[in-house]
Amino acid sequence: MRIKEKIPFTIAQQLPQLLALMQREEVALLLNPLQEKNGFTPVLALGALRSIQGQYGKAFDTIEEFRKDCGEIFGYFSYDLKNEIEELESNHTDFTGFPNYFFFEPKVIFRIEEHSLNVEYYEEHAWLIQTLLNPILPGKSTAIFDLNARISKEEYISSINQLKQHIHRGDVYEVNFCQEFFAENATINPYRVFEKMLQKSSTPFSSFFKKNELFLLSASPERFLQKEGNRVLSEPIKGTAKRNADVLLDEQNKKDLRTSIKERSENVMIVDLVRNDLSTFASKGSVKVDALFAVHSFPQWHQMISSISCEVEGDISPLKIIKKCFPMGSMTGAPKLRAMQLIEEYEHFQRNVFSGAVGYFKENDFDFNVVIRSIIYNAKKHYVSLSVGSAITANCEAEKEYEECLLKAKMWFEILK
């Protein structure tokens, strides 16, 4: 029987203590600890009573059976599960070492509120609650190292120009092309790095996942898919502009993003793709665009975000819904299958958990982000990975797309200095 308890804490106290707890367990997932609005329900899932992991093949069926047995589970889907959905392959080297999927039933769940933690646990795990009083975090955040580009700027621009030729031939309308920055023989303290990340950019779909020596630190602003009751919601991002310390210039950047023909065309293509994905399982006539071209401001960026929703029948499988929409259109392009084929052809690394989805299932509901603006760290291999990308369309300029990638990576470059 699970015990429920409320513990009084302020968020200033909570974060170091929650991170200290994560160090004590081999598996943990922290979602939206600063309680940003309209994001994940803030929660720490700590320890694994049981877990599943594996590669693509029968991942969605396996996860569905595990979910039914457990009720509430936490974890991630990697981008490479695309190979289970379509006749696709992942032939690039995987440097990060993450399984294609991992889910676990927690020993303890801390639901984070403004002035308290609501804790759920079994009696035999009560000792974990006591450790809240003794947070221990090492002081040093990172050793000094440089992130190296997997491809040169010249190679990047050449790839963009080749992709534009595919677009002009009508093979595809839009492709999300990504590149990796990486470091080998690198050591970081992921707990301190995550703290620094939250100080620089608190986002509604931030997450910190650990599984033994594998770490994912995400400042994602994007929701992939949420199901609450019979409503399914997707909130794709397409369109990025930098922030400016000057209030007038910052407002101008925001206005330019809102009115940009290029950014709006990118966004509407993905909205149409999501509408099509939702229509494959939605109740008849229920798919609708709740918000189109809305601009949201975050500490590092302005983002153009649209919202698309639908209603579903109560007996539909949650994993069926996710599989019909996976991978997310904002990280592939349109049409999705051809875009993924070109991504495999022109990118130089295996995405794995990058541009996958992290989140949770609670009974028949779920909420998952898009894994972007993230650091992936394999402590055993001493390997650090940061991947960024942008949407390639017929009228895009390769130089500006490269600059957009650097804008998205800038925060991490600063944090890891």
The CATH level-2 architecture is identified as: 4-Layer Sandwich
Largest sheet entry: 20 strands, antiparallel
Assembly state of the chains shown: single chain
Q: In CATH, what is the homologous superfamily?
A: Anthranilate synthase
Please write the CATH class name.
Alpha Beta
Q: What is the tally of beta strands?
A: 20
Question: Strand content of the residues, in percent?
Answer: 25-35%
| Named CATH topology | Anthranilate synthase
Q: What is the domain tally?
A: 1
Radius of gyration: 21 Å
Helix content: 25-40%
Shape, per Cα inertia axes: globular
Please, what is the average pLDDT? 93
Question: Helix segment count?
Answer: 11
Instruction: Name the poorly predicted regions.
Output: none
Architecture blueprint of SSEs:
Blueprint: E1 2-8, H1 11-24, E2 27-31, E3 43-54, H2 59-70, E4 72-77, H3 82-85, E5 101-112, E6 116-122, H4 126-130, E7 148-149, H5 153-169, E8 174-183, H6 190-200, E9 205-211, E10 214-220, E11 223-228, E12 231-235, E13 237-242, H7 247-259, H8 261-279, E14 288-297, E15 301-311, H9 318-325, E16 333-334, H10 336-346, E17 357-362, E18 365-369, E19 374-378, E20 383-392, H11 398-415
